[in-house]
Amino acid sequence: MFKKFLYIIVVIGLAVSCSVRAADTNVSLLVLGDSLSAGYGIAEADTWVAEIDRTWSLHHPNLRIINASISGETTQGGLARLESLIDRHQPDIVFIELGGNDGLRGFNLDTMESNLREMVTILQSRNIQVALSEVEIPPNLGRRYTRMFRDVFHTVADDKGIPLIPFFMREVALNAEYMQADGIHPNLAAQPVIADIMEPQLRALLEAL
């Protein structure tokens, strides 16, 4: 009887510890992006990723965000760097915000899709959760290319069974007050706005672990 009682206590204890994992265990999310996340034209400490890091440090100290974004990065570059980033940071989740530079340069979309799929496959094989950002580009290369480009992200997310996060630039790109003179990159004033958009979505991913 005592052994049965002890077994029940152990099982309950394990269930409770699993249910509160995100509340009492440090978990991390790595942002693998391009200039939109790296903070082209502004200081690294002022990026939307850094804004989220400060918020989490104050209000969610068990959560950590790591910015591994590089201006000019492509899906091929992200794929080439991925393994070393995993080994260095050991993230629980990777948020991939790549593809914009592929599209702006008119790269082959099959290659871009293959790179995204390979990144997701690598992460899933190492039991790391993945979330993919939608990415949109101006229609400079024609409506057909632009539509096919946008569809890649939905196809990869659906096929791989991963979350697809709405493109955060959609909320700021049409507001000149939030854009740099090139019309592509968000400025300093846009960073807190993007952080407000992304913080609850990224936090939800970590708290669901």
From TrEMBL:
Query: Taking every annotated instance into account, which residue ranges of this chain make up the domain SGNH hydrolase-type esterase?
Result: 31-189
Could you tell me the keywords of this UniProt record?
Signal
Q: Which PROSITE patterns match?
A: LIPASE_GDSL_SER, PROKAR_LIPOPROTEIN
This protein's source sits in the domain of life called Bacteria
Quick check: keyword ATP-binding in the entry? no
Signal peptide positions (record): 1-22
Record's keyword annotation contains Signal: yes
Q: Name one GO biological process term.
A: lipid metabolic process
**Gene Ontology molecular function:** phosphatidylcholine lysophospholipase activity
Family annotation (InterPro entries): Ester_Hydrolysis_Enzymes (IPR051532), Lipase_GDSL_AS (IPR008265), SGNH_hydro (IPR013830), SGNH_hydro_sf (IPR036514)
The name of this protein is Arylesterase
- Species name for this entry? Aliidiomarina halalkaliphila
